[in-house]
Amino acid sequence: MIRVLAAAVVIAMIVVGWLLLDRQQNYAMLAAPPPPTTPSPGYSASDAEIVETGPDGLNLYTLRASTITQLPDDQVVSLEQVRMQLKDDSGGLWNVNADHGQILQDVDLLELTGHVDIAGFLQGSDQPAHITTGRISLDTRTDLATTKDTVDFDWAGSHLRTRGLSANLKDHSLKLESDVHGTLRP
Q1: Which of 150, 94, 88 is nearest to 118 (CA)?
Q2: CA distance linking residue 100 with residue 81, whole number of Å
Q3: What percent of the chain has pLDDT over 70?
Q4: Percentage of the chain surpassing pLDDT 90?
C-alpha cells in the first residue's frame, strides 16, 4: 500500500510540475511581443519606360527615366533624367524633359524640377513652342502644366518671360500669370 501511495504521489508531482511548466510557457508566449511587420518593399529600375493608355487602348503618354526609385514604405516615386511624350487633341506630340521628377502614388500629378523644357507645336504653326522653367507640375490626366516659378516661353521668334503659368497642352491654351515681359513678333 505504501508503494501505491508513493507511486501516486510521484505521479501527482509529475502532473503538477508538467501543468506549472506548461502554464509558464503559455504565459511567456502571451507576453512575447508580436513579430515585427515587414515594410513594404521598395524598388528601383534603370532605363525604365512607363506607357499610360486610355480606355481606347491608345497611348496617353510615354514616360522614360534613367532611374525610377521608390523607397520602402514611401508613397513617392522618384525619377531621374525624365523624358516624356504627350499627345494633344489634334494628335500632335509634346516632349517634356526634366532633370528630376516625383510621382505621388495613386495621384496623376508629376512634379518636375531642374531644367524643365516642354516643347511642341501649337495649332496652325510650323514653329515649335518651348516652355522652360525650374519647376512645374503636370497633371497627366488633363495635360495641364502649372507653375508659380519664372517661365520662359519661346515661339516663332518671340520670347516672353513671366512668373507663373498654366498651359493646357491638350487644347493649346496658355495663361501667363504675372510680371510678363517680352516681345511677340508677327
Answers
A1: 94
A2: 6
A3: 77
A4: 35
Domain locations in the chain? 1-32, 43-183
Give 87-96 pLDDT, tens digit per residue.
887 778 899 9
Q: How far is residue 65's CA from residue 90's CA, in Å, rounded to a whole number? A: 26
Radius of gyration of the chain (CA): 32
Structural element, H or E, at residue 6 = helix 2-31
As a CATH number, domain 43-183 is 2.60.450.10
Q: Is the pLDDT at 27 greater than 80, yes or no?
A: no
Question: Residue for cell digits 497611348?
Answer: 59
Q: Average the pLDDT over 61-71 and give the result.
A: 90
Closest by CA position to 143, among listed 79, 76, 84, 66: 84
- Cα 107 to Cα 17, 56, 138, 158, 164: the distances in Å are 61, 21, 11, 35, 23
Question: Is the confidence at residue 65, as pLDDT, over 70?
Answer: yes
